[in-house]
Amino acid sequence: MRVFSASSRDFSATAVMKTDSLRPSFRTPVTTRARGFASAAQRLMSRALPGQCALCGNLSQDVLCAGCDAQYWNEPRLRCATCALPLAASVMRREREDIRVHCAACLDAPPAFNDTLALADYRAPLDTLVVELKFRARLAAGEAFARQLHAVFEDSNLPAPDVIVPMPLSRMRLVARGYNQAWSIARPLARMMRVRGDASMVTRVRHTSAQSRLDQETRRRNVASAFAVSGDVRGKHVGVVDDVMTSGATLDALARTLKLSGARRVSNFVALRTPKD
User: Fold this and answer.
1) Which domain holds residue 151?
2) Please, where are the H alpha helices in the chain?
3) Number of structural domains in the chain
């Protein structure tokens, strides 16, 4: 009687093949169906057992209750068509043959991006929704932002982008957080707009300090050469999605990289915009 071990040279290839054929497949139809049932059950449970509204705390099957959803979106503020900065009527300026309003800064020193759509100012109570999405993994908030951004886009005269990309995170930050909050907005927005969404077309090749802690000039230097484009954007209109726009330095750096790679136009879709007032 011969005894075989894992290191035995007499352990024939035929025997190995027979042993491998007895191993269960982890991609069986039964397993796939079970996962499908579990996913469906989870969706049903989320509907049957409502959670809390992210803003007021009342019971709600959606991330916002009906009252908060009707009250806080699309505040009536005039915004610069280029950077979405809130404007007072006294400082509005228009380009020739352009009915849209622009801030003086964008006319005097235009950024690399062409347009920005924003839902509201980054202030209470909607800033809570960004915190829920960004730091507490409440990904349903991304769907809520996408729905409202799509409505704003539908009311605008902007052309649809050819592709939508999220503001990328560095590998270090992505590993630490586990997800990209901008992609949680960009993916459903691309689906609603019926355009292609691509999470890998642009990458952040250099880890940078948190922009919120820096002054405007330092922010520009901080994100210079931070991005790379791996897809073909030549002649394309690229939509860039982010959760918050503060100074616009990061979006400007990404738009500059896209333009240098051949992009024809870059439009920003941001959930909230930090005001100067």
Assistant:
1) 74-273
2) 13-22, 29-48, 66-72, 104-108, 126-135, 140-155, 171-177, 181-193, 216-223, 249-260
3) 2
Whether residues 171 and 43 fall in one domain: no
Q: What pTM was estimated for this model as a whole?
A: 0.76
Q: Per residue in 170-193, is it b (16+ CB within 10 Å) or e — as a string?
A: eeeeeeeeeebbbbbbbbbbbebb
pLDDT tens profile 153-186: 999 999 999 999 999 999 999 999 999 999 999 9
Q: Is the pLDDT of residue 148 over 90?
A: yes
Q: Same domain, yes or no, for 181 and 65?
A: no
φ/ψ of 190, rounded to 5, equals: -60, -40
pLDDT cut 90: percent of the chain above it: 54
Do residues 65 and 83 both lie within one domain? no
